[in-house]
Amino acid sequence: MTIRVVIADDQAMVRRGFRLLLDDEPDLTVVDEAGDGEQAVAAVRRHRPDVALIDIRMPILDGLAATRRIVADGGCTRIIILTTFNLDEYVFEALRAGASGYLLKDAPAETLIDAVRVVAAGDATLAPSVARRLIEQFSQLPQPRAALSAALAELTPRELDVLHLVARGRTNAEIAADLFVSEHTAKTHVSHLLAKLDLRDRVQAVIFAYESGLIRAGGPD
């Protein structure tokens, strides 16, 4: 199956570079490009791609606002935010808005290609430096919101275990080993957890785990 991609960046040379890189892969194809956030939203609505690569700083409508509009449309397009800044103030908000990945533009080509495949498959990806930034943001969160704490209380002990492991960055294979189950069973547990909490992917699960108070930044692993 071919993964269809939209690229949104205000620099034409950057878009061309990404297009050449992705189109060179047999399972990836770029179906459209956009030079600003408004065009990005329109392109996603027009093509309904599997993945949208969106620069966070663009004219007319920035990547954060574009992400919110695309997610609000309720389609299946997964979003990877791209940025030059590894300490961008929008990291946390972009992920809360529904982005499934956040990568730096200077990441190796293989990293970008793998990220597109990962999010198209329904998972999520973060650059290591972005993950550190996210933890810093979590450390500044106020007390858990009541609604999130209530949702947390509805989870079974096994679901709490799974959420805790997902929030700690464990893969399905690692979750399976920790819980002494098969990798298929671990994947099923994660899928059921996301569905029960109405979360898009693992990034959203991580955010939920911290915002609900299940995990506190700097707490024990």
Could you state the oligomeric state of the chains shown? single chain
Helix content: 40-55%
Computed over alpha carbons, the radius of gyration is 17 Å
- Please summarize the sheet with the most strands: 6 strands, parallel
Q: Biggest sheet, strands in spatial order?
A: 2-1-3-4-5-6
Low-confidence stretches: none
**Name of the CATH first level of the largest domain:** Alpha Beta
- Kindly give the count of domains: 2
Strand-and-helix sequence, N→C? EHEHEHEHEHEHHHHHH
CATH architecture of the largest domain: 3-Layer(aba) Sandwich
Strand content: 5-15%
Mean pLDDT: 84
**Class from helix and strand fractions:** alpha/beta
The 3D shape can be described as globular
CATH topology of the largest domain: Rossmann fold
Pfam family, one: GerE
InterPro entries: CheY-like_superfamily, NreC/VraR/RcsB-like_REC, Sig_transdc_resp-reg_C-effctor, Sig_transdc_resp-reg_receiver, Tscrpt_reg_LuxR_C, WalR-like
GO biological process, one term: phosphorelay signal transduction system
Protein name: Two component transcriptional regulator, LuxR family
Structure description:
The protein is an alpha/beta fold. It has two domains: 3-137, Response regulator (Rossmann fold, 3-Layer(aba) Sandwich), CATH 3.40.50.2300; 142-211, Arc Repressor Mutant, subunit A (Orthogonal Bundle). The chain is 52% helix and 14% strand. It is built from eleven helices and six strands. It has a six-stranded parallel sheet, sandwiched between helices. Helix 5 (109-120) links the parallel strand 5 (101-104) and strand 6. Helix 8 (157-167) packs across helix 11 (202-211) and helix 9 (172-179) packs across helix 10 (183-197). The longest helix is centred in the last third of the chain and has 15 residues, at 183-197. The protein is globular. The termini are far apart. The mean pLDDT is 84. GO terms for molecular function: DNA binding. InterPro entries: CheY-like_superfamily, NreC/VraR/RcsB-like_REC, Sig_transdc_resp-reg_C-effctor, Sig_transdc_resp-reg_receiver, Tscrpt_reg_LuxR_C, WalR-like.
